[in-house]
Amino acid sequence: MLPYFLTLHVYSRIMLCLFTAKRWKMHYYRYENAEVSCCYKYLLFSYNIIFWLAGAAFIAIGFWAWSEKGVLLDLTQVTRSHGFDPVWLVLVVGGVTFILGFAGCVGALRENICLLKFFTVVIGFIFLLELTAAVLAFVFKDPLKKWINDFFLTNVKAYRDDIDLQNLIDSLQRLNQCCGAKNPNDWDENMYFNCTPENLSRERCGVPFSCCITGPRKDSVVNTQCGYDTRAPPANWSSQIFTKGCIVALEEWLPRNIYIVAGVFIGISLLQMVGIYLARTLIGDIEKVNFRY
């Protein structure tokens, strides 16, 4: 009986070894012909080269705008401005886009897993931030409205301090046919337009020209002095300037264009998902090839 059990034990061990070897062989041959897909590799490269170049262009435009304002010669102007400098937004967007485009391009060409994982994590984090911001904006409507109103008034105060901010506010008021945050009297917050007796500015009790109601001729010369004395008593706002505030105009614009806003958000999200999918697929191919060797 003992030899029988020994033989059975040896046979079982041999079968176990053969089964393990066969399983290892199948596992090995599963990746024997593994290779990095050129399709995904160059799709990801093409996907990111556009953002890389766009990021570089945004950064160049930002520094050019600062050089035109003399900020590069006097860096203290960066912290001295009390309002929002639109160049900051251009530089931040350009910087993030440039870094992500660089990581995606180099990671795809060099098949660098670290850069590809960095690209995937950052894209995913940005997507989560966008989703969180959208949910919070929907849930906390009233606090958001108050914050936007305060933000607009802060920049009304700094209207003359920064030429880019001035152009941004003028474009916003002209496109939406609005004036101030809630009404034209919000321009009392600005030292040049307020109606206090101490204000000796020629623009006293006035508004910027972007608040003026223009005539039917769109290509006529812009009258930059059309807002002078429009709020001085007795004031007839309805015939000279827009009486609706920009916050109210935004509240009216959003419901009318909700499908456009949703479409833009979905389009950006799909682009991000495509980038994550391409990067994750390429990472999987690279790991299979590394496992083979």
UniProtKB/TrEMBL annotation:
Membrane topology recorded in Swiss-Prot or TrEMBL: Multi-pass membrane protein
Superkingdom field: Eukaryota
SUPFAM superfamilies documented for this protein: Tetraspanin
Subcellular location, record wording: Cell junction, Adherens junction; Cell membrane; Cytoplasm; Membrane
Disulfide bonds: 178-211, 179-195
GO cellular component, one term: pore complex
Main location: other
Sorted UniProt keywords: Cell junction, Cell membrane, Cytoplasm, Disulfide bond, Glycoprotein, Membrane, Transmembrane, Transmembrane helix
InterPro entries (alphabetical): Tetraspanin/Peripherin, Tetraspanin_animals, Tetraspanin_CS, Tetraspanin_EC2_sf
Keyword Cell inner membrane included in the entry's annotation: no
Transmembrane segments: 6-21, 42-66, 86-106, 118-140, 258-279
Molecular function per GO: enzyme binding
GO biological process: pore complex assembly; protein localization to plasma membrane; protein maturation
PANTHER family: TETRASPANIN, TETRASPANIN-14
Family: Belongs to the tetraspanin (TM4SF) family.
Protein's UniProt name: Tetraspanin
Species the sequence originates in: Paramormyrops kingsleyae
